[in-house]
Amino acid sequence: MRKRICVERKREVLSLITDIAFANVPCWYDASRRDLKMDLIVPKNRTGHPACPAVVWICGGAYRVVNRSVWLPEMMRFARAGYVVASIEYRTSSEAVFPAQLIDVKSAVRFLRAHAKEFCVDPNRIYAMGESAGGTMAGLLGVTSDRKEFDRGDYLDHSSAVQGVADYYGVVDLSGASAERDRMTAVVNQSNDVPYFAFEEFLGVGYGKTEAEMAGAICYVSEKTPPFIILHGTKDAVVPMAQSEKLYDALQKNGVPCEFLVIEDAVHGDDLFYQDEVTDAVIRFFNGISAEKG
Questions:
Q1: Chain centroid, CA 79 distance in Å
Q2: What is the C-alpha to C-alpha distance for residues 123 and 170, in angstroms, rounded to an integer?
Q3: Domain range for 281
Q4: pLDDT tens string for the chain (294 positions)?
Q5: Residue 280 CA: distances (Å) to CA of 60, 74, 78
Q6: Is residue 193 assigned to a domain?
Q7: What is the CATH number of the domain that holds 48?
């Protein structure tokens, strides 16, 4: 059967660009080097295309593992809403301890700004998002725009600042961490609400109070911190909600625009966080920041 149909162009066609190297970092006991990579969802037809806001998505994995591609299907809703999506990787705890991870994610933001025209990115509208350990990194990105000690590598003439953050159940306060704690006990430290995996694997063997404080977003919050939306589940047994509550309180105390979405009955990494009504709330939050910037 032969048919002729007229099709209306109702939406923009998108393209996935994989394996983009954004930094080159030491590996194998600093004796070798490897590329850090990102995957990008961008408009397919980019010639003359208006600049788009961008989200930098940071995967979790208890600081031990990371897969930059695993969440790309869920990032499509952001892409359909007009955002360029950059899903990035960073060094895990088996390769390097903090602040290597923060250095890596900052490198990704600078790379995007340096290649903004090529990928249709608006350099004035870049937002950080992450879940679990990725939420830790997204939060740190948001609060350390003026901390140049974490900017290392290429494109240092570009800023690593982001204009807003979506923190999905990340660890944000390590100030009470103790190197004396039994790291083999896989339970939450009830004295400071820090999950077990955030200790020596993230901070390094023999860490002290200074190192612990540097790894928590909460200690950098100021009136200059960009807007935050925080998401946490009421049944999270991995990262206690107290972590997000502390961050929310610190943001409010400093007059930072923030929203706190408490997801009823959600456990750590729950599918509930990726339902349309939740994702749309994050998009509305970022759109609101963009509208305020004019």
A1: 16
A2: 25
A3: 14-174+218-293
A4: 999 999 998 889 999 999 999 999 998 888 899 999 999 999 999 998 999 999 999 998 888 888 899 999 999 999 999 999 999 999 988 888 889 999 999 999 999 999 999 999 999 999 999 999 999 999 999 999 989 999 999 999 999 999 999 999 999 998 766 544 444 343 444 445 666 666 666 777 666 677 777 888 999 999 999 999 999 999 998 888 999 999 999 999 999 999 999 999 999 999 999 999 999 999 999 999 977 765
A5: 21, 12, 8
A6: no
A7: 3.40.50.1820
